[in-house]
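[09:14] KT: can someone run the structure on this one? pasting the chain below
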Amino acid sequence: MSKKLLAMYLTAILCATALGGCGGGEDASSTASAGGESASSAAPVVEEDYVPTFPIVEEQATFTAVTPPSGGFSNMDQKIWYQAYEEATNVKIEWSYWPDWETQIGVALAGNDLPDLLFNLYTGLDKPTTLQYGQQGTFVDYSQYMQYLPYLEKLMEQYPESRALVTNEDGSMYALPCYTETLTAFSGTVYYRTDMFEEAGIAEPTTTDELLDAVKKLQDYFGKDNPDFIAFQPLDYMSMDSHIPLLLFPSFGEEVDREFGASDGKTVTYNYISDQWRRTLEYMHELYNSGGFDRNIYSEDGTNARAVILANNCAITTFGTGYSLDNFESGNYDVDLLAPLTSEYQSEQRYPKQYNSRLGSFQISSKCEDIPTLVKWVNSLYASKEDEIADGVYGVSLFVGIEGETWNYDDETRQTYTINVPADYDGAAADYLTEFGMSDGANCIFTPMNSSSPGLLCKGVGTRDKLLPYSVSIFPKNYLSFTDEESEQLSEYYTDIQEYVNQSNAAFVTEGVTDDSWNTFVNEVNRMGIEEVLKVYQAAYDRYLAAVE
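[09:31] RB: done, structure tokens below
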């Protein structure tokens, strides 16, 4: 368990003790319909040949669930998807909201006072903590109920890394994956203004040298009469650790992952001390010193940068979806994505495509009185179009609502869609989705593009045509499982290494890299124990490879 989580849970235990049983744990899951199997049974009774049918139950079953009230998770009973799911499944969820998620879940775990379901499309709890409480009997082991999860099983067969993501070393499974693959969700996106490039007589860069040259020429051309112009304006400091290095790093060597990699498919390396990363940092320093790059970027939270971008005072940015058509004299959305670049060190274009699954939540309390029915309801969240649970209702409904009602494909190609905003709704389509939908789903593998947003359509087309054709596999860092001992070793060594590396990277970009400064950096990372970290990752990677074979 991480130092942060350990502190959180110690605090939670103290809070739970002080509360002295004020929670009423026995009532937390008492609303579920009787007649199912609880986790207290020695061995759950599972139907041998379960085939999903809807409604799931004839007499409405009611369960309790908790979710954080942010990121589209508030007012769940008013969400279009939930209302459609309640009608189709005949399962009702009584929603609660924990605004201080970490503290409240810590108190609930310490007192074993949980609702039937933890509903969080993101981690909610990390894997070691979920395993710890699962082994204590707090959570249901999904591996005993996979018969009730055929829609999820199909996704796991298609994406075997997602099974490894949620399966523990002992074969248990206390949380489930979430899948997201939309053309507007990919990282490594750097945009350029095609109208400005054309006016300055500059072609789209295809190499790192051409990009650096373009930044200098754009600054000279537009900056000579405009002191507010910054040729390359990232949105914020986080872009310096996400979009920009993700695009640049593969251009400077054989590896595609900045942190951990295994270019030979077997041996784990730590690439932040590699020559390839040094070349990337040296190049980023050249950009930083080019005269056309925001030199205050490491203190930028997006407030000032957004104003610069939307005032047409930059030509290259990581925030290319925020313009309106009023920004362009042509009336068209004159923005495009940069494709992966090449250099003297790498002649192939390569894009490190992220895996489409991540650790979600969906932990079920062992106190739930009807586990099979709730597991079947969770299964319905993974339904694909071919398994829709009602007309137009399936997994992607959590994201865009009901096909044929709240959204429609624009034509038979099914490459774009339009949100059907009610005439009496005072707002844009994106606002409507935020208010009555969510920004994701358990099965949000959905590649059509929203044609009602020129910016998102630009990103979607650019991702499809200029990034994904050059996709290469990445190191499955987030899919590795660690033993308790290994987790303790990572906490002992790697937490401090990460902090030191992050600080050093920023200094290298702003101040430059010398032989002395680089050698000092590498030696310090080695002294801090990176070899011990690599041993842990190598063991976990070996187990992962065996699991997905």
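[09:33] KT: thanks! Residues 1-42 have pLDDT under 50 and may be disordered.
[09:34] RB: yep, looked fine to me
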